[in-house]
Specification:
By secondary structure, this protein is mainly β. It has one helix and ten strands. The protein binds copper (II) ion. Copper (II) ion (CU) binds at residues 39, 66, 77, 99, 101.
Length: 151
Amino acid sequence: MKRFALAALAGLFSLSALADVSVAEPWVRATVPAQKATGAFMQLKSDADARLLSVASPVAGVVEIHEMVMDKDVMKMSPVPGLDLPAGQAVELKPGGYHVMLMDLKAQVKEGDQVPLTLVIQNKDGSRQTLEVTAPARPLNAPMKMEHGKH
Ligand SMILES: [Cu+2]
């Protein structure tokens, strides 16, 4: 009985501290030789308020979380310090929106490659957890929904 009670208690603690984050449809845009940067995309959903703090990958020297912003009719991307994952709400990283920027690529990312990504999630209480994701590389001509200013 005592052991059961402790296990239940441990379960409660992990529930309260760690958000359960699910990752759907991760993918990375394949590159051409000598291309030094590309984007990684996915849908994230957390059962509790949490934050995507950073991402790491062995294929890239530098990984940043970027957002696309309109600046005088021109889409630009800029790094953000993190991405909020509100409880129960799907957050989409997609071309033309938030994305994971893989920079200083160590090799060409070819179609069909499996790119490992390590997501660092910060829970509401400040604790952190990591999430391992494998994102397949999709071809260069995968739809790019970048909206440009219309004239
Ligand atoms: Cu970017």
